[in-house]
Specification:
By secondary structure, this protein is of the alpha+beta class. It is built from 2 helices and 3 strands.
Length: 114
């Protein structure tokens, strides 16, 4: 025995009031969409900044590993070598000379008078 009634989704002509209500709903949905898009852009900018920072750190560490060196603050001391007329900058951790300069003439004259 067939059913006597059933419910189906069928087109219905909207009243002017219903059209107005759907227009308001569309406007609200559009504003919500724009708001979500703005949040997405802000989040993407944050993610981009975080990813760029992580990539920079990976590149920095990769260069250190490749060169097997990294720059560090090392205490150095200038030592005058009057015999060779030079002033040397010496690393205090290894004793290595990292810079050498000629002692200026005015300073050499002063040492002779002292």
């Amino acid at each position: 025995m067939p059913k006597e009634t059933e419910t189906r989704m069928l087109p219905v002509l909207l009243t002017p009031r219903e059209l107005q209500d759907r227009g308001r709903a569309l406007s609200a949905a559009y504003k919500q969409y724009e708001s979500i898009e703005a949040e997405k852009k802000a989040a993407n900018a944050d993610f981009k900044e975080s990813l760029d920072s992580a990539r920079d750190e990976m590149n920095r560490l990769s260069e250190i590993i490749k060169s097997e060196h990294e720059s560090r603050a090392i205490e150095c001391r200038w030592v005058d070598d009057w015999e060779h007329n030079v002033r040397r900058c010496v690393r205090q951790d290894s004793g290595e000379v990292v810079d050498e300069q000629t002692i200026p003439a005015d300073e050499r004259q002063g040492s002779l008078l002292s």
